[in-house]
Design a protein that fits this description.
By secondary structure, the chain is an alpha+beta fold. It has four domains: 179 residues, Alpha-Beta Plaits; 81 residues, 2-Layer Sandwich (Alpha-Beta Plaits); 76 residues, RRM (RNA recognition motif) domain (Alpha-Beta Plaits, 2-Layer Sandwich), CATH 3.30.70.330; 137 residues, c-terminal domain of poly(a) binding protein, CATH 1.10.1900. The chain is built from 20 helices and 24 strands. It has a four-stranded antiparallel beta sheet, with helices on both faces. A four-stranded antiparallel beta sheet has the order 8-9-7-12, with helices on one face. The protein has a four-stranded antiparallel beta sheet with strand order 14-15-13-18, covered by helices on one side. The relative contact order is 0.06. The N terminus is likely disordered.
Length: 517
């Protein structure tokens, strides 16, 4: 979510390009007042802005400080970088000094294999000898340094000097790699080219009876093996897989072609290109997404969501009730600890059968309760529908004349109709008898939503008092049988309310961002 400080950055970047500083790695409790106290000794300050989340107002961990004079900003950068505020060393760099330079990657250097003791200040002190540094950062997680970082020099010449001098040098007894920064796209393209020219081969499923010597004997037939390794467990037994690194790509490719699917130790082995962990994870993610999309497509239009089930209804009874409408491929009542959760799913073999079942079974009383039956939807789909309904009502309200808004707001911003006296939501809940399906059916259609709203509104008010009217208005768009179920199931009501809150917050954030811009 965009921080409010983005406006300040753009404005000051254009008006005061050499007097605006970015201050990062801030503790979330650091305020503008703390920063003013820290930086004012460097010179007169025009403005300070700690960037915050637009909804929660929580600090995003960085700020912008605008000095009156560039010399004062430079003094602060030179003398205060990496000083500690609330237990954290701050990181200072020029703000918007040359955005084109930053985006181009010119002068940007990547360093890896850093000792964990090297922090931002140590990295800055080490590389400042080669030229003016725009920014410097060691990448960290909750456990500390991740062993790599970046230094962005003002000129490419300074970056080149740093690379020529420092690449392969020892820093705290560890040989570091220093090279030109490459974008993700550049790395992916380069990695893709390397993949096509692989030399390292992965072999699995050869069992426990294998060691380095025997594996080398088997695969030496395909070329010069630079290294061979069978992976062992703590007891010194083969874990059933290993690696062979060949002298060139052609030898490795031949080994894969000849040995994949062959038998070793009476087992069919897999032989293929060895993959790095990031590549394996990417492949698994791709396969998972593919399976997920196939499953969604397979059940699209044929899977029904059934709720407000009587406690005595099990899988067999659910299947029996829906079987007159077509061929059922699965019927499942969701349970918790052996007890029904009051809802389940019925999957038909065709969309036509599912549609007929929805038409015939929605609202029908089974055992003691009226069922709510609808096509099953993923959470993202439900939220999208709720968002669309809300935005349509909002757009309609904006086009209505002022004298008509009062009647419309009764739907969009629900308030219970209580004549003569104003009652608190808690009072509304007392004495009201529970609403049943028969009571609702006996009421005129125009009064049914009001009856449901009067009972749902106090429940929502207890969760989100400020948004209770809006949320109730949104939920009253839902089918009456589902609203009845929500009155009986706090979990179902809470889930729908949270979806509505997410819609309102997303709209508010978008609207606020639009106004700020």
């Amino acid at each position: 979510m965009e921080g409010l400080g983005q406006q300040t950055m753009n404005a000051t970047g254009a008006g005061y390009p050499l007097a605006s500083l970015y201050v990062g790695d801030l503790h979330v409790d650091v305020t503008e007042a703390m920063l003013y106290e820290k930086f004012s000794p460097a010179g007169p300050i025009m403005s300070i802005r700690v960037c915050r989340d637009i909804s929660t107002r929580r600090s995003l961990g960085y700020a912008y400080i605008n000095f009156q004079q560039p010399a004062d900003a430079e003094r602060a950068l030179d003398t205060m970088n990496f000083e500690v505020i609330k237990g954290r060393p701050i990181r200072i760099m020029w703000s918007q000094r040359d955005p084109g330079l930053r985006k181009s990657g010119v002068g940007n250097v990547f360093i890896k294999n850093l000792d964990e003791s090297i922090d931002n200040k140590a990295l800055y002190d080490t590389f400042s000898a080669f030229g003016n540094i725009l920014s410097c950062k060691v990448v960290c997680d909750e456990n500390g340094s991740r062993g790599y970082g970046f230094v962005h020099f003002e000129t490419q010449e300074a970056a080149n000097r740093a690379i020529q001098t420092m690449n392969g040098m020892l820093l705290n007894d560890r040989k570091v790699f220093v090279g030109h920064f490459k974008s993700r796209r550049e790395r992916e393209m380069e990695y893709g080219a390397k993949v096509m020219e692989f030399t390292n081969v992965y072999i699995k499923n050869f069992g426990e009876d294998m060691d380095d010597v025997r594996l080398k004997e088997i695969f030496s037939a395909f070329g010069n093996t630079l290294s061979v390794k069978v992976m062992m467990d703590n007891g010194g037994r083969s874990r059933g897989f290993g690696f062979v690194n060949f002298g060139n790509h052609e030898e490795a490719q031949k080994a894969v072609a000849e040995m994949n699917g062959k038998e070793i130790n009476g087992r069919m082995v897999y032989v293929g290109r060895a993959q790095k962990r990031i590549e394996r994870q990417s492949e698994l993610k791709r396969r998972f997404e593919q399976i997920k999309q196939e499953r969604i497509s397979r059940y699209q239009g044929v899977n029904l969501y059934v709720k407000n089930l009587d406690d005595g209804i099990d899988d067999e009874r659910l299947r029996k009730e829906f079987s007159p409408y077509g061929t059922i491929t699965s019927a499942k009542v969701m349970t918790d600890g052996g007890h029904s959760k009051g809802f389940g799913f019925v999957c038909f073999s065709s969309p036509e059968e599912a549609t007929k079942a929805v038409t015939e079974m929605n609202g029908r009383i089974v055992s003691t309760k009226p069922l709510y039956v609808a096509l099953a939807q993923r959470k993202e789909e439900r939220k999208a529908i709720l968002t669309n309904q809300y935005m349509q009502r909002l757009a309609t309200m904006r086009t209505l004349p002022a004298h008509m808004l009062g009647g419309f707001q009764q739907q969009s911003y629900f308030l219970p109709a209580v004549p003569q006296v104003v009652m608190e939501p808690a009072v509304l809940m007392q004495g009201q008898e529970p609403l049943t399906a028969s009571m609702l059916a006996a009421a005129p259609p125009q009064e049914q939503k009001q009856m449901l709203g009067e009972r749902i509104y106090p429940l929502i008010h207890s969760m989100h008092a400020a948004l209770a009217g809006k949320i109730t208005g949104m939920l009253l768009e839902i089918d009456n049988s589902e609203l009845l179920h929500m009155l009986e199931s706090p979990e179902s009501l809470h889930s729908k309310v949270e979806e509505a809150v997410a819609v309102l917050q997303a709209h508010h954030a978008k609207d606020t961002t639009h106004k700020n811009n």
